[in-house]
């Protein structure tokens, strides 16, 4: 039994988090549940706050990716009882408003006086304490908890914690980009979200999936799941992908000079110390046969049908990755996506960014090649993931053995290691890809 206080991760200010004692959560409403957490993850979204790039107040308890066991339920909770194993959606939603009933629990109209949508431990997302703690109060528990089989710490623990946000988010990114089986897909960003977007695209039968980043450990994971890694520091990733998509088999037709140059670059590249021949074979597998079946005119479609921004407003400038360029990925994707193709922006953009470098960016205003986007007749999907609508189906894929999203988990840590993990994860250093905190001693 615990006392009146518990440990939690508290935002103190830019680049500063501490593990502090805070009051235990209590049932405040009959529809609440209290969950004792067994795993709780750190998200790329937490780093926006850590970097001082949101309006988060010092003192905020962070975290929104909780997995645990029900400790107590309010009188009006009917679906759960003490001892049930549950994962909690990062969205907090009521279940009965105009948006919730249509499945958009990400834009609930009743839980946050400021905007549509609420979440645990996040700037602007309502007065809810975060989940990087020993225990969590979950409002509207019948909706926001999802029941799980097994017991804490079993073979699914690392997979199930990813159901709170990142696996549904990766899957939702493919919906924003209107993925269909057989589609060609480019994902920018090989963080947890980008990796699970690529994984979800492959699970749904995408023909070829490219993933762009520059962090070697993350590009290795891209290759492990059967997607095609593209290192943007080698050269323009759009030209690299188009060169691969244009490679012809059994034809004497010469490639255009720019693409020929790119193919040479690719042929000689060895980003992860692997044999270049093997690398290039993996990268081009299956593709020449697709090109061989094109009809005249279809060469105008040598980009991808689905492009996904899994980076957001803190995108790196390709010419100098030590700097940010918020529009870098959107610019690249608008060039790469085919006419009538689809752009999914799952990476976060914000309307308040106090840490931005210019007056427009501080208000979330950016210059984009909108004319090109319009001429191509591209659809654009954006926004937060409505986790609940997806979570149970992905849970059953994990239980059924079709999906094992925990391949992204790089670190499992205790509370004592949290400040260092934030520092390292913020640098995306030393293989830090997905960190899971184990809150119980
Ligand atoms: N829409 C939602 O509901 C939702 C949910 C969770 C996370 N997110 C957002 O998704 C984004 C990614 O999250 P994550 O946890 O994977 O974060 P992350 O920061 O670990 O991953 C981002 C990756 O993008 C790479 N990158 C940076 N600039 C790039 C560029 N120009 N081209 C290609 N790659 C580039 C980085 O090297 C990094 O590996 C964040 O913005 C996060 O806030 C959105
Ligand atoms: Zn998250
Ligand atoms: Zn609602």
Task: Explain the overall architecture.
Helices cover 29% and strands 22% of the residues. The protein is of the alpha/beta class and 441 residues long. The protein has 2 domains: 5-165 and 385-437, Quinone Oxidoreductase, Chain A, domain 1 (Alpha-Beta Complex), CATH 3.90.180; 167-382, NAD(P)-binding Rossmann-like Domain (Rossmann fold, 3-Layer(aba) Sandwich), CATH 3.40.50.720. Strands 3, 4, 5, 8, 9, 18 and 19 form a 7-stranded mixed beta sheet that branches. The protein has a 6-stranded parallel beta sheet with strand order 12-11-10-13-16-17, with helices on both faces. A two-stranded antiparallel sheet has the order 1-2. Helix 8 packs across helix 9 (257-268) and helix 8 (237-246) runs parallel beside helix 12 (328-336). Mean pLDDT is 90; it is low at 249-256 and 258-286. One zinc ion binds at residues 43, 45, 64-65, 90, 165. GO terms for molecular function: adenyl nucleotide binding; anion binding; metal ion binding; oxidoreductase activity, acting on the CH-OH group of donors, NAD or NADP as acceptor.
| Percent helix range | 25-40%
Q: Do you know the CATH architecture of the largest domain? A: 3-Layer(aba) Sandwich
Intertermini distance: 12 Å
Low-confidence stretches: 249-256, 258-286
Strand content: 15-25%
Structurally, how many domains make up the residues? 2
The strand count comes to 19
Bound molecules: nicotinamide-adenine-dinucleotide, zinc ion
Largest sheet: 7 strands, mixed
Q: How large is the radius of gyration?
A: 22 Å
CATH topology of the largest domain: Rossmann fold
Structural class: alpha/beta
Number of helices: 16
Under the CATH scheme, which class of the largest domain?
Alpha Beta
Instruction: Let me know the CATH homologous superfamily of the largest domain.
Output: NAD(P)-binding Rossmann-like Domain
Arithmetic mean of pLDDT: 90
Global outline = globular
Family: Belongs to the zinc-containing alcohol dehydrogenase family.
Pfam families: ADH_N (PF08240)
Keywords: Metal-binding, NAD, Zinc
Domain Alcohol dehydrogenase-like N-terminal: 30-148
């Amino acid at each position: 039994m615990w006392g009146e206080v518990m440990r939690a991760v508290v935002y103190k200010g830019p680049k500063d988090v501490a593990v502090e004692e805070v009051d235990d959560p209590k049932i405040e409403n009959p529809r609440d549940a209290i969950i004792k957490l067994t795993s709780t993850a750190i998200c790329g979204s937490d780093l926006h706050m850590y970097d001082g790039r949101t309006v988060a107040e010092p003192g905020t308890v962070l975290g929104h990716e909780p997995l645990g066991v029900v400790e107590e339920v309010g009188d009006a909770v009917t679906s759960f009882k003490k001892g049930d194993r549950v994962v909690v959606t990062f969205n907090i939603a009521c279940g009965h408003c105009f948006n919730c009933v249509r499945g958009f629990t990400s834009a609930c109209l009743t839980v946050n006086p400021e905007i549509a949508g609420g979440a645990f431990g996040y700037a602007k997302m309502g007065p809810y304490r975060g989940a990087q703690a020993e225990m969590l109060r979950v409002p509207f528990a019948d909706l926001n908890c999802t029941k799980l089989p097994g017991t804490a710490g079993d073979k699914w623990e690392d997979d199930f914690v990813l159901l709170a946000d990142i696996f549904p988010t990766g899957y939702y990114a493919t919906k924003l980009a209107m993925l269909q089986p057989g589609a060609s897909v480019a994902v920018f960003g090989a963080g947890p979200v980008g990796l699970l977007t690529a994984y979800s695209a492959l699970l749904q039968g995408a023909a070829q999936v490219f993933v762009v980043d520059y962090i070697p450990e993350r590009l290795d994971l891209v290759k492990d799941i059967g997607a095609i890694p593209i290192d943007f520091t080698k050269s323009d990733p759009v030209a690299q992908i188009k060169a691969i998509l244009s490679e012809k088999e059994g034809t004497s037709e010469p490639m255009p000079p720019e693409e020929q140059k790119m193919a040479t670059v690719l042929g000689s590249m060895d980003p992860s110390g692997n044999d270049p021949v093997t690398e290039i074979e993996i990268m081009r597998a299956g593709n020449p046969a697709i090109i061989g079946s094109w009809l005249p005119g279809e060469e105008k479609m040598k980009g991808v049908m689905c492009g996904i921004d899994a980076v957001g407003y803190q995108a790196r400038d390709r010419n100098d990755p030590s700097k940010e360029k918020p529009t870098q990925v959107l610019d690249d994707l608008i060039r790469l996506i085919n006419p009538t193709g689809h752009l999914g922006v799952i990476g976060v953009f914000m309307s308040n960014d106090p840490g931005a470098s210019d007056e427009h960016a501080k208000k979330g205003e950016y210059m984009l090649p909108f004319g090109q986007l319009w001429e191509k007749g591209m659809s654009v999907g954006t926004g937060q993931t409505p986790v609940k609508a997806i979570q149970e189906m992905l849970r059953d894929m994990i239980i059924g053995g079709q999906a094992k999203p925990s391949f992204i988990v790089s670190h499992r840590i205790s509370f004592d290691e949290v400040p260092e993990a934030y520092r390292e994860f913020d640098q995306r250093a030393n293989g830090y890809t997905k960190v899971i905190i184990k809150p119980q001693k």
